[in-house]
């Protein structure tokens, strides 16, 4: 295969399809999403079998547990894919919405109309559910898309791709509106990110190395986040009944996701109250605690097993582990917590546990992250949980889109003017 020519052909087809998608009715787009959801459910046995082949190869290749976790499909995750598509279909269609209309002294009315971005290139690793999520959001937002999944999920991705193509065709929309790259050759990525004549934006989803490479080499705008060093801060006025459940969920529900807590900060004034129970809970779930000297002393005295304790290094404060490991540091107060987070975090998601309104609101205003939470697990930083139906990814950029990127993040605005024969004087 001539990979460059293959990708250019995909690009041309996507650009042509993007014109049809921009003009597609809401009913047509929703019908396509409904058909795709139905086909995913009907073909779940085929999808599970394909995923089984992917998993077998991944284990033979020695993939890390976090990657295996991302790759694995179950009956539950397949149903979630279908339900996510239906939730996207139920959302209001942003395309064509006109807002901020104002009449000018000249007599004209000026406002904004929401429009698709055009062609969205999405590059991701071992997460086949992204194929369905990305396809659904791009369809509903009137975009065409080129999806390049990792080689680890090639079999499952191709089954989902067939569901998408068949669903689009059933709704009389161009099947080329969503194209899943069929080659695992890495040269396909290099071409995709350097053809601005066909692609309007790139969304990378994967490890830090992948995203850094794409950000460095792309000739197309990129919506991205590099990593997820998320913090939970236990304030000196935290409710003890909320501390354990939030920390447990934020760290241990899943280890391989970007919204998992990787750093725990504890107010020094209440460390003796909260840290022993938190340490015992985390160690009991197999989590290693990399702690500052003060917190290490408290954890040892509380009887946390020695094999689950380790003194933290400077690198630990900014690390995304994607594993059963968490850094722990005592801080003087909310000021030091905010300063620490703004220095070391990846600006993804950070949470405070506190009943003090002033502390909580300062945390919201002053922590410079895409999602900031009060008394809730960082695991909620997700498009589905935010009511977006699904997400195309998480952005820690400050231009265009920030946080979970859903339908609105896949659109732009153009100025529209309504006149009645006015001319400029």
What does this structure look like?
The chain is α/β, with parallel strands linked by helices. The protein contains 14 helices and 16 strands. A seven-stranded parallel beta sheet has the order 10-9-11-8-7-12-13, sandwiched between helices. Strands 5-4-3-6 form a four-stranded parallel beta sheet, sandwiched between helices. Strand 7, helix 10 and strand 8 form a beta-alpha-beta unit. Helix 2 runs antiparallel to helix 5. The chain is globular. The termini are far apart. The mean pLDDT is 95.
Gist of the model:
Helices cover 42% and strands 19% of the residues. It contains 14 helices and 16 strands.
What percent of the residues sit in helical stretches (DSSP H or I)?
40-55%
Order of secondary-structure elements: HHHHHEEEHEHEHEHEHEHEHEEHEHEEEE
Tertiary shape: globular
Number of discrete helical segments:
14
Mean pLDDT: 95
- Give the N-to-C terminal Cα separation: 60 Å
Percent of residues in beta strands?
15-25%
Strand arrangement, major sheet: 10-9-11-8-7-12-13
* Rg of Cα set: 24 Å
Main structural class = alpha/beta
């Amino acid at each position: 295969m001539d990979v460059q020519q293959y990708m250019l052909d995909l690009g041309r087809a996507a650009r042509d399809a993007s014109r049809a998608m921009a003009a597609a009715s809401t009913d047509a787009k929703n019908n396509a999403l409904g058909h795709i959801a139905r086909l995913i459910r009907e073909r779940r046995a085929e999808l599970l079998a394909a995923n089984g082949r992917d998993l077998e190869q991944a284990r033979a290749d020695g993939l890390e547990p976090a990657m295996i976790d991302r790759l694995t499909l179950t009956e539950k995750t397949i149903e979630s894919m279908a339900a996510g598509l239906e939730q996207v279909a139920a959302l209001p269609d942003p395309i064509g919405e006109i807002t901020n209309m104002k009449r000018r002294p000249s007599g004209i009315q000026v406002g904004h109309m929401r429009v698709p971005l055009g062609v969205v290139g999405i590059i991701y690793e071992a997460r086949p559910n992204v194929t369905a999520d990305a396809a659904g959001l791009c369809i509903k937002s009137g975009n065409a898309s080129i999806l390049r999944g990792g080689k680890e999920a090639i079999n499952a991705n191709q089954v989902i791709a067939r569901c998408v193509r068949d669903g689009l065709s059933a709704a009389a929309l161009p099947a080329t509106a969503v194209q899943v790259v069929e080659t695992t050759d890495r040269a396909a990525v290099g071409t995709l990110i350097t053809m601005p004549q066909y692609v309007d934006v790139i969304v990378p989803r994967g490890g830090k190395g992948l995203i850094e490479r794409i950000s460095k080499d792309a000739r197309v705008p990129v919506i991205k986040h590099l990593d997820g060093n998320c913090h939970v801060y236990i304030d000196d006025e935290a409710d003890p009944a909320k501390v354990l459940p939030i920390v447990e969920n934020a760290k241990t529900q899943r280890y391989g996701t970007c919204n998992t807590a990787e750093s725990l900060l504890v107010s020094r004034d209440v460390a003796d109250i909260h840290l022993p129970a938190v340490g015992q809970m985390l160690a009991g779930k197999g989590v290693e605690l990399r702690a500052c000297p003060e917190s290490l002393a408290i954890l040892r005295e509380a009887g946390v097993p020695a094999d689950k304790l380790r003194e933290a290094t400077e690198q630990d404060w900014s690390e995304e582990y994607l594993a059963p490991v968490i850094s722990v540091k005592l801080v003087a107060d909310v000021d030091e917590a905010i300063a620490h987070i703004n220095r070391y975090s990846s600006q993804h998601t950070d949470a405070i546990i506190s009943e003090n309104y002033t502390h909580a609101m300062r945390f919201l205003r002053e922590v410079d992250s895409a999602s900031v939470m009060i008394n809730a697990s960082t695991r909620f930083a997700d498009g589905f949980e935010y009511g977006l139906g699904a997400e195309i990814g998480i952005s820690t950029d400050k231009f265009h889109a920030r946080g979970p990127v859903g339908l609105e993040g896949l659109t732009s605005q153009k100025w529209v003017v309504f006149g009645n024969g006015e001319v400029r004087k």
